[in-house]
């Protein structure tokens, strides 16, 4: 019972911070310099993770589909399944889980260290809003960079699938590209990009919330960092199911 109550309390705390962030965003001008700094940290510093994950995920999917479709004589159409799976689901989801673990835990550690050393309290005492200074730039950076990283992951994932399909099935790259372009349309692409924007918001808000509630010195910062990775991963996976259901109803 206590676990359920604590979980609901945490969800309420995140929701409250999210509301404060939205209000702050529309009431005051975002800190552009801080946002650009976090864009570099959240995006440029995470591209290698997105590329490596997408490349080998696309290759593994292609090998599995090619093997599974071979008894039915449909292995030539592996590109259709790989591209659809990467662009709609695995591209945005895996990128968000891995980048979220890196970026969200970094946010939690940074803000948590400031919190336990009373820098956040000092900021409030000087009349500055921690939400405006600490939370809004980080969330904006995540929401901007996640779609960009997702597009990169989609492209690399399909490329990895093409290499594996050419090796396993023996098709040409032109045939694979034709299969991808005839299957993936603007709806499928936007399906993944819309989800990546939500994932970016979840990464930023959870990382900042966990940092602002950190207590207990350096041990508390370490504990918060671990909890942040778990919370972000669970949130992304659960929200992916819900968002997929909603987008399928809306767009088909």
Give me the secondary-structure topology.
Elements: H1 2-27, H2 32-42, H3 47-69, H4 78-116, H5 119-125, H6 130-169, H7 173-183, H8 186-212, H9 217-251
Summary tags:
252 residues, 9 helices, mainly alpha
**Structural class, judged by helices and strands?**
mainly alpha
Rg is 21 Å
- Largest sheet data: none
**Series of secondary-structure elements, N-terminal to C-terminal:** HHHHHHHHH
Q: What is the distance, rounded to the nearest whole angstrom, between the alpha carbons of the first and last residues?
A: 39 Å
Count of spatially separate domains: 1
Question: What report would you give on this structure?
Answer:
The protein is an all-alpha fold and 252 residues long. It has one domain (2-246). It has nine helices and no strands. It has helices spanning 2-27, 32-42, 47-69, 78-116, 119-125, 130-169, 173-183, 186-212, 217-251. Helix 2 (32-42) packs parallel to helix 6 and helix 4 crosses helix 7.
Short description:
With 252 residues, the chain is mainly alpha-helical.
């Amino acid at each position: 019972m206590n676990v359920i109550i604590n979980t609901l309390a945490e969800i309420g705390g995140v929701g409250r911070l999210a509301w404060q962030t939205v209000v702050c965003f529309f009431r005051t001008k975002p800190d552009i310099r801080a946002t650009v700094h976090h864009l570099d940290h959240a995006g440029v510093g995470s591209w290698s993770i997105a590329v490596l994950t997408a490349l080998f995920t696309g290759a593994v999917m292609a090998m599995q589909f090619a093997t599974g479709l071979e008894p039915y004589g449909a292995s030539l159409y592996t590109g259709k399944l790989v591209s659809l799976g990467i662009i709609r689901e695995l591209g945005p989801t895996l990128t968000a889980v891995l980048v979220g673990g890196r970026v969200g835990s970094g946010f939690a550690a940074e803000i948590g260290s400031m919190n336990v050393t009373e820098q956040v309290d000092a900021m409030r005492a000087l009349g500055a809003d921690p939400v405006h200074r600490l939370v809004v730039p980080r969330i904006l950076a995540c929401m901007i960079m996640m779609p960009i990283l997702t597009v990169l992951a989609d492209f690399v994932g399909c490329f990895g699938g093409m290499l594996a399909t050419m090796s396993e099935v023996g098709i040409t790259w032109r045939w694979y590209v034709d299969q991808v372009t005839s299957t993936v349309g603007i709806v499928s692409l936007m399906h993944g990009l819309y989800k990546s924007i939500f994932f970016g918001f979840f990464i930023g808000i959870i990382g900042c919330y966990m940092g602002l509630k950190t207590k207990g010195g350096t041990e508390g910062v370490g504990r918060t960092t671990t909890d942040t990775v778990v919370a972000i991963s669970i949130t992304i996976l659960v929200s992916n199911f819900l968002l997929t259901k909603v987008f399928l109803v809306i767009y088909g």
